[in-house]
Sequence to fold (467 residues):
Amino acid sequence: MPELEPGKLDVSLSLYELQKKIYPRAVTGWFATWRWTLVWFTQLLFYGLCWLPWNGRQAVLFDLAERKFYIFGLIFWPQDVFFLALLLIISAYSLFLFTALGGRLFCGYACPQTVYTEIFLWIEEKIEGSRAARMKLDQQPFSTRKLVLKTAKHGVWIAVAMWTGFTFVGYFTPIKSLAQSVLSLSLGPWETFWILFYGLATYGNAGYLREQVCKYMCPYARFQSVMFDPDTLVVTYDAERGEPRGSRSRQSDYRAQGKGACVDCGICVQVCPTGIDIRDGLQYECIGCSACIDACDQVMDKMEYPRGLIRYSTEQAIRQHWGRKEILAHLLRPRTVIYGAILALIIGATAYGIAARLPLKVDVIRDRNSLSREVEGGLIENLFRLQIMNVSEIPQRYVVGVTGLDGIDIAAERVVEIPAVSARTVLMPVRVPPEAGKKGSHRIYFDVKALGDAKIAVHEKASFLMP
Fold:
C-alpha cells in the first residue's frame, strides 16, 4: 500500500449497514390477541383446506398436469384465465382500499412473512426462553446446553418449514397421493424440488431474515407512502402528550417536573419486530402490528396514566385533537369511496360471471389438412375439429348442429358423450350444396346443446370456405 502523505488521514467508508440481530419481546394485549387469532385462522385454513374432501376429490386442487383447477364446486380450465386476472385486480384494489383506511393492516396481521415469523418466534421463546434469556444465550460461549437448545430450536423450525412446503405442494399434487409418495420414498423430482424450495424459503425468511424481508425485500414498504394521506389510520405516538420523555416514580407529579407522559422505558422498541422506535414518527419499516400499542398501554396502566400514548390515529387527528367520532367520520373520503366503489363493481361482476358460467365450453378449429373439397353428390365439404369440454362433475350428452348456409348439414354422428370434467375432440365434416354460396369465406355457427337441459348451450362461430 502507498504511504500516506504527512498531515492526511486514512478514512475508510463502509457502504454496508451492520445488521444487528433483533430480539422482539413477547407482548400480550388486545392487538396481540387479534394477531394470534389471525395466525390460527390462516394456518388452519392453509394446512387443513388441502385435506378437505369434496365430491370424491380434494376440495381445493390446482391440477397443473390435467390443467384443471378445483375450488369446491367450481372447476376452472385454462380458458378461464380471465377470472384469474379479475382476482388479481380485486386483490390490488383491496390492498389500495385497506391501506388508505388503516395503513399496513395486511402486513401486521395476515402477511405470510409476519405470520411465520410470529410462529418461529414463539417456538424460539418456548425453547430458549424470554428476550433476556435469548440475548444471554447468544452471548455465552459454546456449551452443551447451548448446543442442545439451538439444535432443538432449529429442528422444530425445519419440521414446521418442511411441513409447510409439503402442504404447499399438496395444493398442486393431490395431498393423499403426495403423502403416500413421501412415505414410500418415491417422490418425483418436481415435487421434491418444490417441497425443499418452499420449506427452505420459509425456514430462511421466518428464522433468519425476518424483519429484513419487510425492510429491504418487500416492495410494499417502498410505495405505501403514495397510498397514505393525513386521514389514514396508522400506529401513532402522541408526541404532544408524551414529550419531553423521562423516567420518574409512580407517585411523582411529572407535569410539575416539566415532563410528558412517556417514561422512556423503551419497551415499545423492545417489542417491535422490525426494531424501530415509533416515537421517531411514522417510518416505512413499521408494519402496523400494534405490538407497541399493547406494550405502552400496559406501562400506562402501571403508572396509572390514561391509555393511548401510542394508538391508532391519523395525522389530522393528532394535529387537531380529534376524538374517535371525528376520525371515523373522515374514513369516508373521495379516495376510499372511489376504491370501494370500483372494488364492489369488480367483485359483483366477477361473482355474476362465475354464477352465469356455463358448464360447457366449445372451441372450433378448422382441419388444416383439408380446407375445402368436393365429395360425392357434388357437395362441398369442410372439416372442423370441435373440442367440447364438460366442466361439470356429471357425465353429459350433447347434440351438435350447424347453421348459416342453405342446405348445410353435418355428415357425422351428431350426439357426443363426454365424461365428467373431461374434454373430447371430435371431427365434424360439414357439407353444403355448391349453389349455397359464392366463392370465398362464409360465416357459419355450431350449436352444441346438452340433452335434457336446454339452458346448457353454446353458439360458436366458424368460417366455411367455398372453392
Summary: The mean pLDDT is 91. Residues 144-169 form the longest helix (26 residues). The domain at 360-466 is CATH 2.60.40.10 (Immunoglobulin-like).
